[in-house]
């Protein structure tokens, strides 16, 4: 598979169809809070840096960042996930509303906090510490049934369903089954996985492990393209999915289904931060497939989107114009 598989004209045609397409995102929503400050000395109380506060900002994380990426690309997005009964949930809803993401599918679980990751970073974007607020137990009982019901209610009319699993409780086998049962005839179900839940994803259209996850799931080392081919085929069998896209960082991606087995080279970019790049990949994949792209075409578009977003700090998004301009300069 080479860049010649996707022409500039075809890319333009697909990207032009992004606007208004409906996508349902189901997964673990999070808030990413950044506390930014200046470090000039070490504390006399302990061997730790003293951070002089300068600013604070909040970004959408996890499945919420996936939804945000889709909205930035022009999609109409509905989001299903779990939040707590707390101020962080209110802040999350505000951020989603500002990003034009429908948050009516969020289910409140008073027994857990809204997942929030607080990062203390320097003015040069160096991380000093991270504080996690979370309860990573799988949803069960009334909460799980409510999630599945929201999926069933919101899936109709969606051009793609995207499951974003961060092992924080939202994605369970009954929830995946609800997504598979509720999707329209041609809508793909795409999973950004976590390996402990591998058995939950049976029946999915596409699963997108990174190379570490693929190695863990298959007990195979991935050092070159031949290894990637073998691991991808083994992963498809283990996950019982139609296709697999292994993301390999600077080595690009490996795509495998019944008809395609090939490498997509990485796009050379200056890397500022890889946080959230996987969210951008799955969002672009889902929207491209909803627009009618073949799996190889969608993977190439996702590869370019990842190349753009790693040049930005923190969880970030890509616009249709940025994506097209990046493709036009290379294809």
Q: How many individual helices?
A: 10
Strand order of the largest sheet: 5-4-1-8-9-10-11-12-13
> What is the subunit arrangement here?
single chain
Share in β-strands: 25-35%
CATH top level class name: Alpha Beta
CATH architecture: 3-Layer(aba) Sandwich
Could you list the spans in which at least 5 consecutive residues all have pLDDT below 50? none
Radius of gyration from CA coordinates: 20 Å
N-to-C order of helices and strands: HEEEHEHEEEHEHEEHHEEEHHH
Largest sheet: 9 strands, mixed
Q: How many E strands?
A: 13
The proportion of residues forming helix, as a percent range, comes to: 25-40%
Could you say how many structural domains there are in total?
A: 1
* CATH topology title: UDP-N-acetylmuramoyl-L-alanine:D-glutamate ligase
Look at the helices and sheets and give the structural class.
alpha/beta
**Rounded mean pLDDT score:** 92
Could you give the distance between the termini?
13 Å
CATH superfamily label = Ribokinase
Shape type? globular
Describe the protein's architecture and organization:
- This protein has a single domain, classed as UDP-N-acetylmuramoyl-L-alanine:D-glutamate ligase (3-Layer(aba) Sandwich).
- With 331 residues, the protein is α/β, with parallel strands linked by helices.
- The mean pLDDT is 92.
- The strands form two sheets. It has a nine-stranded mixed sheet with strand order 5-4-1-8-9-10-11-12-13, sandwiched between helices. Strands 3-2-6-7 form a four-stranded mixed sheet.
- It has ten helices and 13 strands.
- The radius of gyration is 20 Å and the shape is globular.
- Helix 1 runs antiparallel to helix 10, helix 6 packs across helix 7 and helix 8 runs antiparallel to helix 9.
